[in-house]
């Protein structure tokens, strides 16, 4: 049986190890903050932190993540940088429908944990794997600039 | 007005759990209607937002406010809520005066408490509202409360939960015993299933999965989501479809131009059954503008939860029109409407009629086949890209004559396209069932859907078709075409983006021909002082901004949504890269939405509209072949991404004495037009067919 380390805890996984991580998180573990928008690694909705980096979870089998440190958006609140990012998103009202938001919070948290202070252009490039269809982009960029400054 | 149908205070406002419960028929799509309604209640009754809840929107319980669309939420539901809360305040203050032995003018209202001035005796506003008579009618003349200063901005409802991943979408619902479901995607709407391999079916059943079939409608259901996804893929790879002659292919704009059309003159924004105006004898400007089929492209594929129990159906859905959908499902399944309950649960932003209604009906079909079991059906990304109703392809032809001073003297225009009325709702020939796509797959006798021309003011194709500018001789024709290759319905802004692109491109070219500044040229064709004020403010904001340099350009556009709602003037600055790609740098936007209720929400709506308009302008186009749509994911259907997001400066003009008007659809049209004008400023190339992607810019440069 597969064991995954998620949000600081070892979790035994019953799903078939071929199941993409996002489905395991949502369906088996009830961690529904990880959204699925495409299942094709094209939209960024399903991002989670894996060893500190933002990784898309909708296609890669869960077994690939064994031994890695997975932090979902639910776990981001427990990280000091994550909290700061979430507060910045709230302060800038950086969501409309919010479906893209969790993935973006994860991506900006990964930037915050990397420790550099990227400029606006670098932030735009880093967030390019993420789609938002409501047009919350300007607020997300403002929130990222606030959290990363 | 909505209070005509729902005249009682308790239709709009009730009390429960020590707080107010606001009732509305409008659903929150991310446009923050719930935040705006809470704000209205706080303004009128001074009850703090944490003591105000919004009742779920549910058929049989909530007011029927039709469809949440057309940027009407604030105008309609907001007005009803304001009148209801103002009625409640006046009645509650009278009651308080009675209880405190004084008169209403000796009462102060603060933080949800009514205090007898100069005493320490006070009453709770919520308790007072609870004590109002059951049959108190909403007073349509109840005056709004005048606040000494505006309330601070409200944190949008649900925002904290969104950023923490705790917000619940339909996709996240879970119930004991629930099954996940997926459907087979037909290559085109009325394809017939020719072969469903028995070995795959047997394999599914032995794996404990359910197969549901009704004619060519096929679904798989099972307890865990991923195995269901895999099973649906296997089934879809194994089955064969009969597509008859397949879809008509070719250049959609040639198809559109060649089709027989129902044509109507448009007078003051309204199509008439009357003789058509003559074309102009000669023209100083003659051009055609084209927009391809465009997706809504919600970030989350559509989903719904349905449960069939004792002959009754419950559906949790992100549809924008619960009552209409209920009627259409009842008609499809030959059920009484009273036996169907629909409740709204958020989906992702939808921007019009996407797959929400179809998927709700399909979930119902599956639930009916597997009774007493909650069914959560999700479309796949390819389902959404391949099946959602689209914004129609459009072509707008323009001929203009100018006077001796270069001003607009005469104008002939034709706007041409398929219908925007694809939503399931009652109508002749079982229009409701005909517009639920599963009915074209099932074995039913639902007739084919034939759209009726929309003859309302600034509706459908002719939204923003009648120029807001003064033109002495205007000859406008709406041309509605049917049976184009793909399925059309309502997409945010309807015909406005194509029409505004045509009008604003023309204004730009005529200004240049006349040797005039584009803002000044527009202004001299406007007699609405608020329009002029918007352009004046835009001019002031642009004054301090250097013009983009070599390889860059600035484009201007102005439009008032439906010629009656929010006025938007904006400028787009961009640069054209070596590849031909337009890189957006800055958008400067001025808007007048009347009285401002939720300023930050208003800004967010306008910014979001700019982004969506930019995405339409630069990227979006549905492609198809004889065997169906070919743009089935985000690679083949690219959209604007973060790397090309401009800085957006929004300036709002507040008109406290004017009614609040919606702004959700005000900015995309002018954004599209301003981008076209900016590309022209940067390159000298006039692009008239959307999208203006790198290929289009390069192709135009080669032709020039
Ligand atoms: S759901 Fe994973 S990238 Fe879209
Ligand atoms: S806020 Fe709706 S998709 Fe980003």
Automatic annotation (TrEMBL), chain B:
Residues 164-245 form the Aldehyde oxidase/xanthine dehydrogenase a/b hammerhead domain. GO terms for molecular function: oxidoreductase activity. SMART domains: Ald_Xan_dh_C. It comes from the Bacteria. Residues 54-73, 417-446 are annotated as: Disordered. This is Xanthine dehydrogenase family protein molybdopterin-binding subunit. It comes from Thetidibacter halocola.
């Amino acid at each position: 049986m597969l064991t995954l380390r998620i949000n600081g805890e070892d979790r035994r996984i019953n799903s078939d190890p071929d199941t993409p991580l996002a489905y395991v998180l949502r369906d088996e573990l009830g961690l529904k903050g990880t959204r699925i928008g495409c299942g094709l690694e094209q939209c960024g909705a399903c991002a989670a932190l894996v060893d500190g980096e933002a990784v898309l979870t909708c296609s890669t089998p869960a077994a690939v993540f064994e031994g890695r440190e997975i932090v979902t958006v639910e776990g981001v609140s427990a990280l000091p940088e994550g909290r700061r990012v979430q507060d910045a998103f709230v302060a800038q009202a950086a969501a409309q429908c919010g479906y893209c938001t969790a993935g973006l919070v994860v991506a900006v948290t990964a930037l915050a944990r990397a420790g550099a202070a990227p400029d606006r252009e670098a932030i735009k490039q880093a967030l390019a794997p993420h789609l938002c269809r409501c047009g919350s982009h300007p607020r997300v960029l403002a929130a990222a600039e606030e959290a990363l400054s | 007005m909505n209070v005509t149908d729902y005249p009682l205070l308790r239709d709009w406002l009730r009390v429960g759990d020590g707080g107010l419960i606001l009732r509305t028929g409008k659903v929150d799509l991310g446009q923050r209607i719930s935040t705006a309604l809470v704000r209205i209640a706080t303004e009128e009754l001074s009850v703090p937002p944490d003591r105000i809840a919004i009742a779920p929107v549910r058929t049989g319980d909530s007011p029927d406010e039709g469809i949440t669309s057309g940027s009407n939420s604030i105008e309609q539901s907001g007005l009803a809520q304001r009148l209801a809360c103002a009625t409640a305040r006046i009645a509650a203050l009278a009651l308080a005066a009675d209880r405190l032995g004084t008169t209403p003018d000796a009462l102060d209202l603060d933080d949800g408490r009514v205090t007898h001035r100069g005493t320490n005796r006070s009453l709770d506003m919520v308790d007072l509202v609870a004590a109002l008579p059951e049959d108190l009618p909403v007073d349509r003349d109840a005056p709004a409360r005048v606040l000494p200063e505006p309330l601070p901005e409200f944190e949008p409802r649900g925002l904290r939960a969104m950023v923490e991943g705790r917000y619940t979408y339909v996709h996240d619902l879970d119930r004991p015993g629930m099954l996940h479901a997926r459907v087979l995607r037909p290559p085109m709407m009325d394809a017939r299933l020719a072969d469903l391999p028995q070995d795959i079916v047997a394999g599914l059943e032995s794996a404990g999965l359910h197969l549901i079939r009704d004619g060519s409608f096929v679904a798989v259901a099972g307890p865990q989501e991923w195995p269901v996804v895999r099973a649906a893929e296997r089934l879809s790879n194994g089955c064969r479809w009969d597509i008859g002659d397949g879809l008509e292919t070719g250049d959609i704009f040639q198809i559109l131009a060649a089709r027989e059309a129902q044509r109507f003159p448009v007078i003051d924004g309204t199509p008439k059954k009357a003789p058509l105006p003559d074309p102009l004898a000669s023209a100083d400007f003659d051009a055609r503008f084209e927009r391809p089929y465009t997706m809504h492209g919600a970030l989350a594929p559509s989903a719904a939860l349905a449960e069939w129990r004792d002959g009754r159906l419950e559906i949790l859905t992100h549809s924008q029109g619960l009552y209409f959908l209920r009627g259409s499902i009842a008609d499809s399944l030959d059920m009484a409407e009273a036996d169907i309950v629909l409740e709204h649960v958020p989906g992702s932003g939808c921007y019009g009629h996407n797959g929400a209604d179809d998927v709700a009906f399909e979930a119902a079909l599956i639930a009916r086949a597997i009774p007493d079991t909650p069914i959560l059906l999700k479309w796949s990304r390819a389902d959404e890209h391949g099946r959602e109703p689209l914004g129609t392809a459009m072509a707008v032809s323009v001929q203009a004559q100018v006077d001796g001073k270069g001003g607009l003297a005469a104008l002939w225009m034709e706007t041409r396209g398929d219908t925007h009325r694809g939503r399931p709702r009652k109508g002749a020939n079982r229009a409701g069932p005909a517009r639920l796509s599963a009915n074209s797959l099932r074995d039913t006798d639902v007739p084919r859907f034939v759209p009726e021309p929309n003859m309302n003011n600034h509706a459908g194709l002719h939204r923003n078709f009648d120029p807001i500018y003064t033109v002495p001789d205007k000859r406008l024709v709406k041309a509605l075409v049917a049976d184009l290759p793909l399925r059309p319905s309502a997409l945010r802004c309807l015909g406005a983006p194509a029409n505004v692109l045509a009008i604003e491109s023309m204004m730009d070219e005529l200004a240049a021909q006349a040797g005039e500044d584009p803002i000044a040229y527009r202004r001299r064709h406007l007699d609405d002082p608020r329009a002029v004020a918007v352009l004046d403010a835009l001019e002031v904001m642009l004054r301090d901004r250097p013009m983009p340099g070599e390889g860059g350009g600035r484009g201007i556009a102005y439009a008032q949504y439906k010629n009656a709602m929010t006025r938007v003037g904006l400028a787009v600055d961009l640069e054209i890269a070596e590849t031909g790609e337009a890189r957006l740098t800055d958008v400067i936007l001025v808007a007048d939405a009347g009285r401002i209720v939720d300023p930050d929400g208003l800004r967010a709506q306008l910014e979001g509209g700019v982004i969506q308009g930019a995405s339409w302008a630069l990227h979006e186009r549905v492609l198809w072949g004889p065997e169906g749509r070919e743009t089935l994911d985000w690679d083949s259907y690219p959209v604007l991404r973060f790397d090309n997001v401009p800085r957006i400066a929004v300036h709002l003009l507040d008109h406290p004495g004017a009614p609040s008007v919606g702004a959700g659809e005000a900015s995309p049209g002018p954004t599209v037009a301003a981008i076209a004008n900016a590309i022209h400023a940067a390159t000298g190339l006039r692009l008239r067919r959307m999208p203006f992607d790198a290929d289009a810019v390069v192709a135009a440069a080669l032709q020039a």
